[in-house]
Fold each of these.
Amino acid sequence: MTGQTRSLNGCKTFLDLGIAALISPASYYKLHSPPEVLLNQPPQQLAALPPAFELQDNQFARAFAVVRDAIEQRAFPAAALAVTHRGSLIALRGFGRFTYADDAPLVQPDTIFDLASLTKVVATTAAAMLLHERGQLPLDIPLGHFLPDFVARAPRHQQATREEVTPHMLLAHSSGLPAYERLFEVAGSRDELVRAALTTRLVAGPGTRVEYSDIGFILLGEVLSRQAGLTLDLFARQEIFTPLGMAHTRFNPPAEWKPQIPPTEDDRTFRRRIIQGEVNDENAFVMGGVAGHAGVFAPAIDIARFAECMLRGGAPILKPETVQLFTRRVESPSGSSRALGWDTPSPPASSGTHFSPASFGHLGFTGASLWIDPTRQLSVTLLTNRTWPNRMAQAIRQVRPLVHDAIVEALEE
């Protein structure tokens, strides 16, 4: 492990490397994709999110201290924080080192992190919002309409129940699919893993209860790519990341970005190597790094740009009514905190005690989080690699609300 850590030293920043936005690599999907795609130029008002963080060290001293203390307590070795408020970037800071080694690279404001399940909102849900708005994704027709094998491959006595599952239920995590299955243990390729997801048994009746489900979002990613006629990575790049100026956000980051990405795990059981610059999630890894539930990498500044899009009513890629539809808490099943793709605050909330009931956000297994409060016109992006070295650290659960509370309280002083 020490040798791996030392090999990270001497990394350069993006300014040193001169990295520009790159065309995505050959897709891991077998859909037809055009060899060249003209990508829209990012609107200047989003690509250049106005910086206003000259006083951040004083204004957010308590929030920054929470993050530094968490690093000292080994909640995570690396973190990046971005805060937007009323249309400006008011905090952008890197904390710690890539690992706990004394000679590991220092985290920079533009350090790139594995977003894990933040993929579900910045790529998959955003793609669903776009396709629904364009009339290409009806939310309440059977999932079997899009993925016939979801019903056809099931035992006959289960088919009628599976016909009740809809894309709306996948987004609201009420489909009856289980939270997680170790499909990578039985699947050796992307196609095999998708087939395994298609035949995963329901653990509850569709629409009867909420169970946050990676399996549901794996299938949703398949629906989206079919409806778009493009692979999920290419569609997200073309329709979301590039228009919003998210120049260093992508599935499967190229090898030259690796020195800017902290490792997430010393995997001694499955891949048997340091996981750095490749998706931590094993199911997404078997899918070639492109999946509906995980796979996107980004720096905090890019997620702040995405958050500002949501705070601006979806401009310039979405209509306000679409943002409202997807970020409003669902009415069924009763008691759910879920919106469509997004979560909303419910105590004890990772967003702390001050975010308004209109807020929406999401977490990621690697230690990522994004919370957006349209009432306060506030977004907080906190990215970490809390899974280093072995996924055991759980203190992030206490750290997140403390950080968010400290930020809101600083703004109210």
Amino acid sequence: MEKTEVHEFAADVYGPAVFEEVFARYYESVLRALFLLTGDPFEAEELAQEAFVRIYERRDRLSSSGNVAGYVYRTAVNVRRSRLRRFRMAVGRLGAPPPSDDGDRFDAIDDRDVLRRLLAELSRGEREALVLVEWIGMSDREAGDVLGTSPGAVRTRISRAKGHLRLALTEGADHDD
């Protein structure tokens, strides 16, 4: 959405037709971002649906956000964070150790599996920053708004993530020989 479209959108934020426009504009990219964050297409779909339900229920907040894309992605990331917190609390009540977020340790059968595994090995903050900036195309400032941090912190997270990925890819290439 262009800046002028944001203002037009904000003027009619309460209508379902406007929500449909936001849904059509952002759903696929939110779904891709959530897939890259979770590594699970089914979980990504559930999270995207939950995020858009929240956006619809709270659509009056879009006009005050001033950044529709930021609000949409922030909601999606927060839905995922909430689910992780609830899961960890439930696991803690059971007394079982939480499952590792290391990803699949089997040999990857294609590039998508390698990418999913490598992303799973990053910290949550590194993974979120990398996905929002490198795959979704947000600026450091926009990603910082979504993640609730500064643009400098986003750049740091991305730099660390790229360093980890570079190291993992280098080590993986050494093991292939």
